[in-house]
Structures are given as structure tokens and as C-alpha cells.
Amino acid sequence: MTLPVVIIAAVARNGAIGLADGLPWRLPGDLAHFKAETMGKPVVMGRRTFASLGRPLPGRSLVVVSRDRALALPAGTVAAASLDEALERAEAIAVASGAREVMVAGGAEIYRAAMARADVLRLTEVDLAPQADALFPPIDPAIWRETSRVPGTRGPRDEAGFTFVEHARAPERARASDPA
Ligand SMILES: NC(=O)c1ccc[n+]([C@@H]2O[C@H](COP(=O)([O-])OP(=O)(O)OC[C@H]3O[C@@H](n4cnc5c(N)ncnc54)[C@H](OP(=O)(O)O)[C@@H]3O)[C@@H](O)[C@H]2O)c1
């Protein structure tokens, strides 16, 4: 991989990211942020997260990770049998389309696997601690450095406040795909 791999996620104070195959909050302001951050870029996601969306995302090429090699997907969406294959496919799409980042959009199983492969964590810290069955993995302070923190603008339909926080991999902690 030569392009940056960016994990994008909304994470509550207790690490919650999902409940019953959906999001445990209603935050249109963060959905708008997700759309802006992913537009025009390839987006890698797990089969369960794709199923929860139920449709392709306009303006973005989705690479769906599944062990099911017979998985049927809509046009414009590609399948990958492993995270490695998904990142390779996503990078090829990015190079062909001029995108500068490969985005990884969850869910919990994919985030856990992608932490070692990511360069950037582009997180929305959600000011809630809801019940959840899907959690974001721990962020190791020996590996990740906070590089920006910007308060989000809470709209009338947002259930809670939120903050956009970015972490970058410490330069001495090369990602897993890089040669030693
Ligand atoms: N808050 C957020 O930002 C955010 C973002 C995304 C998702 N979510 C939430 O997260 C939850 C879903 O997370 P999840 O962990 O249940 O599911 P997931 O990570 O979306 O998808 C898991 C599926 O991906 C495939 N997979 C995972 N690792 C693989 C590997 N190494 N090789 C091949 N295939 C692999 C498998 O598909 P098969 O079973 O088909 O083999 C597996 O069942 C939902 O509640 C969703 O709403 C939250």
C-alpha cells in the first residue's frame, strides 16, 4: 500500500459503535461528515455493515469483505475475501480514480483487523455512553498520536454533541504492511 489507509468511525465515550446491526444513536450531523470525508474515495467495509446500509453509497466505490465467495452484491460494489485483498482492491480503485486515501468504515470486526494496517484514525467522539454490542478497539497510546480535535456543530436533530478527532500513527510505529 502506498496510499494512506484511514479508519473512519463514530465512537461513544464507552467505545460503543453499534447495536443490533445498526447505530446506537441518531446523528445526522455525523452522517453528513461521513459523506463528506468518504465522497469520491474507495470505502472498505464488512459484510454486516454493508447489509445494515442495504444499498451502495452514491459517489463511492464500496469494497465489501466477506468469507462468502458467492456473496451477491449490487453493481458498482466489489467483494473481497480478506482485509488484505480489500485494501489492495481499494487502492487500485483509488489510483484509477485519483483518490488520495483508502477509507475503512467498519464495523467492529473490520476495525479490529484494520488497526494494524491504518495510518490515520478519523474519529467522531460521540458524547454518549449507550448500550452496544459492537465496540471500537482500544487505541494504543504508544502507537497513536492525536493530531487534531475540532468540535462538531450539533444540529436540532442530533441526539448528542460530538467532536471530530484525528489520530496519526507515530512515525516509529510502521504499519503492518510496511517492510521492517
Ligand atoms: N459507529 C460507526 O462508525 C460504525 C461504522 C460501521 C459499522 N458500525 C456498526 O458495527 C456493527 C457491525 O460490526 P460487526 O463487527 O458486527 O460486522 P462487520 O465488521 O461490519 O462485518 C463482519 C463481517 O465481515 C466479514 N469479515 C470480517 N473479517 C473478515 C476477514 N478477515 N476475512 C473475510 N471476511 C471477513 C465477515 O462476513 P461474512 O459473514 O459474510 O463472511 C463478517 O461476518 C453494526 O452495529 C454497525 O452499525 C458502526
Automatic annotation (TrEMBL):
<keyword id="KW-0521">NADP</keyword>
<dbReference type="GO" id="GO:0046654">
    <property type="term" value="P:tetrahydrofolate biosynthetic process"/>
</dbReference>
<dbReference type="InterPro" id="IPR024072">
    <property type="entry name" value="DHFR-like_dom_sf"/>
</dbReference>
<feature type="domain" description="DHFR">
    <location>
        <begin position="4"/>
        <end position="169"/>
    </location>
</feature>
<dbReference type="InterPro" id="IPR012259">
    <property type="entry name" value="DHFR"/>
</dbReference>
<dbReference type="GO" id="GO:0004146">
    <property type="term" value="F:dihydrofolate reductase activity"/>
</dbReference>
<dbReference type="GO" id="GO:0006730">
    <property type="term" value="P:one-carbon metabolic process"/>
</dbReference>
<comment type="pathway">
    <text>Cofactor biosynthesis; tetrahydrofolate biosynthesis; 5,6,7,8-tetrahydrofolate from 7,8-dihydrofolate: step 1/1.</text>
</comment>
<dbReference type="GO" id="GO:0046655">
    <property type="term" value="P:folic acid metabolic process"/>
</dbReference>
<protein>
    <recommendedName>
        <fullName>Dihydrofolate reductase</fullName>
        <ecNumber>1.5.1.3</ecNumber>
    </recommendedName>
</protein>
<keyword id="KW-0554">One-carbon metabolism</keyword>
<keyword id="KW-0560">Oxidoreductase</keyword>
<dbReference type="GO" id="GO:0005829">
    <property type="term" value="C:cytosol"/>
</dbReference>
<dbReference type="GO" id="GO:0046452">
    <property type="term" value="P:dihydrofolate metabolic process"/>
</dbReference>
<dbReference type="Pfam" id="PF00186">
    <property type="entry name" value="DHFR_1"/>
</dbReference>
<dbReference type="GO" id="GO:0050661">
    <property type="term" value="F:NADP binding"/>
</dbReference>
<comment type="similarity">
    <text>Belongs to the dihydrofolate reductase family.</text>
</comment>
<dbReference type="InterPro" id="IPR017925">
    <property type="entry name" value="DHFR_CS"/>
</dbReference>
<dbReference type="InterPro" id="IPR001796">
    <property type="entry name" value="DHFR_dom"/>
</dbReference>
<comment type="function">
    <text>Key enzyme in folate metabolism. Catalyzes an essential reaction for de novo glycine and purine synthesis, and for DNA precursor synthesis.</text>
</comment>
